[in-house]
Amino acid sequence: MPTVPLNLRKTRLLDRLVMPAIALVVLLGVIVIVGWITKSPLLMQIAPSWVPMQFNTALLFVATGSAAILLFLRKYRIAIPLAILVALLASLTLCQYAFGISFGIDEALFTAHTTVKTSHPGRMAPNTAISFILCAVMIMAYRQSSANRVLVVFLSTCVFCLAALAIYGYITGTESTYGWGNYTRMAIHTATGFVVLGGSFLIDSWYAERTVSEKHNRIPAWLSLVSTLVALTIGLSIWNTVSSLENRSALEETKLRGKSIHTQLHSVLDSVRLSLKQMVRRYEGGIRGPNWVEDAEEHIRTTPGLFAITFLRDDDSTRRINLKNEGLRHLVEEWETGESPSKLTFADLEESGSSFHYFVISLRIENSEPFKDSGYLEAFFDAREFFSHALHPIVEDERYVIYDTNGATIISTIGNEKESKGLESIHIEDTYHGWYGEVLEIERASLTALGVTLSSMALVATFLIGGLVFWSTTFAINSYNRDQERSDSELFRTNTELETLLHTISHDLREPIRTVNSFSSLLEEECRDCLNEDSRHVLDRLKGGAARLEDLLSDIATISRLHHLEMSQEKTSLKSLVESQLKHLHKEIESTGAKIEVSEKLPSILVEKKSAQQAVHHLIGNALKFSKNGSPPEISIHPYRDKKRKGIVVKDRGIGIQPPMDERLFQLFRRGVGREIDGTGLGLAIVRKVAEKHGGEVWFRNRTGGGTAFYLVLTSPKP
Amino acid sequence: MVAELELEILLAEDSEDDVYLIKRAIRDEELPFHLTIATDGVEAMEMLAEKSSSGNLPKLILLDVNMPRMNGFEVLDAVKADPQYRQLPVVMLTSSSRDEDILQSYAKGASSYISKPSRYQEFRDMIANFSHYWTNIVTLP
């Protein structure tokens, strides 16, 4: 089993930023609440024309942020009910939108005095409410950790993307990304708050996943989900921009076309009116007899859409001038008997049952020669025929619909009227002529390439790229993790082999060493009197070598054992632990005449007793061994304490440690001194191993005035 | 030495060196022991069976832990499982000083446990102390 890097988690910079970032969100909420109370537009809205962060939104930010902080502090009993409250309030707000009702919660706590871009005073935006619900569910799901991690990651990514989309909308001026329909918009600082909340949970999930021992070098599989959602969000932002650009340019183009149609209609109408005016002048100028009839007939024949010309005396007695088609006579008659002919509209005719629309141009005639009277010359036009002829040269292939002022279709080139939905409408009412006004619609022009709009291409591309990102990241993550797994298992196998080798060496080599020891001591005993000085020296060297080898094997065995040690910790007084080791070392203490001072304040902590004893033994043993030549060692043992950890310090006035030996001193078989002082080169490696097994560490400082202080921490900081 | 009765001891030990050292220690301390030596666990069990059939069971069994074919713990299990031998005192011999080995020995019913010392003098002292103890126990009425 590979050992867990215990302090891995809190050493990552980003992970450390999670809590302060969420605290900032809480602060944001508090600032906006203050803004509402003090009526400060800067705090509520940032810019006066921007939507304010609603009071309820600010309140929920405080609640959600606090719940998240409590969650990370493992205060579930407060965090979860708080999250439930947030979800409840946000859901009620959504219900108000969905069913068009009001529970009175929008202004329950505070009456909104600013309603810029707010559909209901004090009510948070629907997308804000949804984001809060997602955040609340995320907090509730968080506790079950790894099982629900994918859910937490999914929700936090959604919150993040929704808010990022809104911020993008503010930057590019695409309102549809932060406002839904005509409802209240999401404020820019609300979006920022959600980006921070979603991002924080994502970062936390990332490190939480990688802190698990077997996975610390793996990439979580859910990363593909996150990248897909992010890719989709980017795609949707681009689609939004393209389609809003497209709308804008389409509108421009449509307006332009509408204008040209408008101009064309007017010029045709003007020319028709002009020729009618000339006709009137001719009559006023004295045309006689049947000539005027021919004149009128000529007009009707040559003017498209004109089907009747009548003269209406001031006393309402009529002389019919001409008709293109006898079937239309009743229309003209209806018109002439009307009460106020100048106010006739298309709709009046429609109501009277006509199957098509027409309009009348009426001109005043004073003392006309043919009629011997004053009155009105009136020209009846078939609207359909007139418009199609007038517009023919400029909009031959266009799809357009022309309505009258009452919305009834006069002419349509679309066929099916329903299709006309989505057409851009241009009002081309003619106020100059008074009687005349209609709305024209022509098909919205779009940015197209090969007959496909760019926005629909962007949308299709977004989903294709989303799929591609999902597929490729999943593939990449899987293959990366497989490689890691393979190298892990190779590493694990190699480690196991090495450990087995270490174990075997330390045990199997002890047997022959013991034999050498036993037999050399037997030889020494047998030949006590027969050995000369040289032989005795040889025998001593033999014994010394064997003894060193035995110590070495014993230390190797210790390291190998520490590796597999099950950490069953018990509350242990460091003072009694130190004292027991001093007893073990009494021979060395006596022989060196060491002065040892043990602080009364050594704490009691949770340790694996036997290994802690070994570590303390080596530290005191070293302090005794590395004393200055001739002088008895002076050793003092004190407690060590920093913010979260406890341990001991062993200080001596010995030979000190020369600068190049720093971290390397704790490596296997590294020795700071030569062979003149006994040692296996494993003592400090054992101390470090013990410290690591406890989640602590060991380091040293050279003391001013000579000597060294070794710091041994045997507790891990609380997560 | 008070006891003139020669004590029959079955020693199961695969290391010739250790057998030699034990023999030397017995000789040097002039202990009244008669050693029967088996070089592995299987041989030890065979010898035990042979001695049992001739009604001449050893008074003590010394078992090395690391032996080929059948190790000391396995022999200990077999001895304690057999009603004929269950009463025989068994002393485990090993070069290891691991707590687990010591605990396992007692858990399996060994009477004592000896870490093989690495100095001959210590070896001799140990054999002497231990023989005093066992000779007295065995010669009790």
Write the layout of secondary structure elements.
The complex is a heterodimer of chains A (719) and B (141).
Chain A: H1 13-37, H2 41-45, H3 55-72, H4 76-99, H5 126-142, H6 145-172, H7 188-211, H8 223-284, H9 291-302, E1 306-313, E2 318-323, H10 329-337, H11 346-351, E3 358-368, E4 373-382, H12 383-391, E5 400-404, E6 409-412, E7 424-427, E8 438-442, E9 448-449, E10 452-453, H13 454-508, H14 510-526, H15 533-564, E11 570-573, H16 574-584, H17 586-592, E12 595-598, E13 604-607, H18 609-625, E14 634-641, E15 646-652, H19 683-693, E16 698-702, E17 708-713
Parallel strand pairs in A: 12-14
Antiparallel strand pairs in A: 1-2, 1-4, 3-4, 5-6, 5-8, 7-8, 9-10, 11-13, 14-15, 15-17, 16-17
Chain B: E1 7-12, H1 16-29, E2 33-38, H2 41-53, E3 60-64, H3 72-81, E4 90-94, H4 99-107, E5 112-115, H5 120-139
Parallel strand pairs in B: 1-2, 1-3, 3-4, 4-5
Structure description:
The complex is a heterodimer of chains A (719) and B (141). Chain A starts with 12 loop residues before the first helix and ends in a 6-residue tail after the last strand. The longest helix of chain A is centred in the middle third of the chain and has 62 residues, at 223-284. Chain A has 19 helices and 17 strands. By secondary structure, chain A is an alpha+beta fold. In chain A, strands 12-14-15-17-16 form a five-stranded mixed β-sheet. Chain B has helices at 16-29, 41-53, 72-81, 99-107, 120-139; strands at 7-12, 33-38, 60-64, 90-94, 112-115. Chain B is α/β, with parallel strands linked by helices and 141 residues long. In chain B, strands 2-1-3-4-5 form a five-stranded parallel β-sheet, sandwiched between helices. At the A-B interface, helix 14 of A face helix 1 and helix 5 of B.
Task: List the defining traits of the structure above.
heterodimer; A: 719 residues; alpha+beta; 5-stranded mixed sheet; 4-stranded antiparallel sheet; 17 strands; 54% helix; disordered N terminus; B: 141 residues; Rossmann fold; 5 strands
